[in-house]
Design brief:
Blueprint lengths: L31 E8 L18 H4 L7 E8 L5 E8 L4 H4 L6 H14 L1 E9 L6 E3 L7 E3 L4 E5 L18 E3 L4 E6 L5 E5 L13 H4 L37 E4 L9 E3 L11 E4 L4 E7 L3 E3 L1 E9 L6 H7 L6 E10 L19 E8 L1 E2 L2 E2 L6 H6 L1 H7 L5 E2 L1 E6 L6 E5 L24 E7 L7 E9 L10 E2 L13 E6 L5 E5 L2 H4 L5 E5 L10 E5 L5 E8 L4 E7 L32 E7 L1
The protein binds MU-OXO-diiron and calcium ion (CA) (3 copies).
One calcium ion (CA) binds next to β9 and β27.
Protein name: Phosphatase
InterPro entries: PhoX, TAT_signal
Organism: Microbacterium terrae
Length: 599
Amino acid sequence: GGGGGAAGRGLAFDAIAPVDRLVDAFTVPQGFAWEPLVRWGDPLFKKSPAFDFAAQSPEAQAQQFGYNCDYLDIIADGNRRSGVLVTNHEYVNPGIMFTPTTDAAELRRRGDIYKMAQGMAVVELARKRDGGRWKYVQGGRRNRRITVETTFELTGPAAGSDLVKTKADRKGRHVKGTLGNCAGGTTPWGTVLSGEENFNGYFAWAADTAGQKRYQASASTSTSTGWETYDPRFDAHSADYVNEPNRFGWIVEIDPQDPKSTPRKHTAMGRMKHEGANVIVGRDGHVVAYMGDDERNDYLYKFVSKNRYDGRKGNSARKHNMRLLEEGDLFVAKFTGDSPAAEITGTGALPSDGAFDGSGTWIPLTRGGRSAVPGMSIDEVLVYTRLAADAVGATKMDRPEDVEPNPKTGKVYVALTNNSQRGTASALDEANPVTGNRYGHVIELTETRGQSGTTFGWSILLLCGDPATNANTYFAGFPADKVSPISCPDNVAFDSKGNLWISTDGAPSTIGYNDGLFLVPLEGAERGKVQQFLAVPREAETCGPVIHDRDGLVFVSVQHPGEDGAVGAQHSLFPDYGSTAKGAVPDAPRPSVVQVYRA
Ligand code: FEO
Ligand code: CA
Ligand code: CA
Ligand code: CA
């Protein structure tokens, strides 16, 4: 118990007890309640069919909320009465969407359903009659599904490059679809960025060049969606489509206010397994995007726009700002510790100066829109960004997930979810100080010459884990026996007071509890006091937290509930739990966006 006082009156709560990993329930603090805001299969357009688990079709799925919602934002209009929900649909779980089959025609039909179930969604919202909570609007003007078949425009220096040309797009300018959309961020001009993360698994490919190998370690001949068996662009063994994987792994930008707009992929921001991107406007007016490449021993990046943000109201300013991510320079982080290497023992025990901390530099990969890496062209730097970062000696990190600047302070919070290879494939260092890093950690990074500068200071804010069973957790100095156990930080968010909120993905298999959402005050006596706000059902991960503390509302995406079960042997029945109410599906788990409110 005790507090949440730092979150203010709007969201004061007593931390929940951790929830055992076998419990199939959505758990909130005393005094709060929850409801699904929109679920997999909910109809989005006027004539969309109602969800029918037993009679799924590509046509129906294209008009319904997609699968495995991840990044989430709830963007209110100026009137505060209406708004839009924007979410990513990262991937599908065939094993709990369908019963197993080997029938080729049925597999192909399912493949087309998977194409429509992934991507992104924009869903219009309205306040409920009680004035506070939101409901989704079927048939809303801005409702949109973006799928694996939606056309995207490539922008920036690598658009039109030979490295992104295919038989179907000889100019290298337009890509069909988006893949592996994980985290994201809403820009100051109201668009939404989404990271294309694990795109590699959707292709059969030879992976025989250094550039390809850096994104897909070994050759593959088949995929879980089966697209490569009938859609030639997913068979990258062929010369016609050898470059198709190069057209994924980007930051994409969509305008949720205009359902007819063409979404864009920004090559200036580099190609990697993008977790997401979060933008802040620096004091000099340049916009800076922070980005993680979520792979063991990969890197932390930032992008600095060439042009300056226009803060005026109106269409011409917005039009200008919408192009800021098309031109600019890309940097990768190098961390230097200030303690002797011998004091970084791999156990997580603090060095003698009492902190894992030090300084760092942002090493340019491009300068003035040209390559800053000897021996690589600008196209190569942007398409094979990992090779460029390898070449300049960036610091290999413990799987950088969400990286987000605190809008109150400009300090940047880096979620490093875990890294089984730390201390083996990559050496220990002060920024990644735990051998086999099982529980993950969070770095607080302070820019020392402005948001767009090239030097920073840093310290580890949290070394995650369960203090009851692990002696070397660290909570910014807060007593470890007074915090909630936390493991595998993934997404971060801030409330209106600048408190950090962290959602997790991986707690069940590391500390034995369901994943959840946690408040972490950053200032004052409660700095580092991790307090669990909610827990998601069995086998789900908690994503995309949105904290509207002034409204007393918290939103999360519940991704892949019950994913280790099967049809007929469900591990989760979230969120309908056997209900026979209209629209409910009693016998299948449904990834959903949940709204938590004061009861
Ligand atoms: Fe899709 Fe890095 O989590
Ligand atoms: Ca130190
Ligand atoms: Ca994630
Ligand atoms: Ca994750």
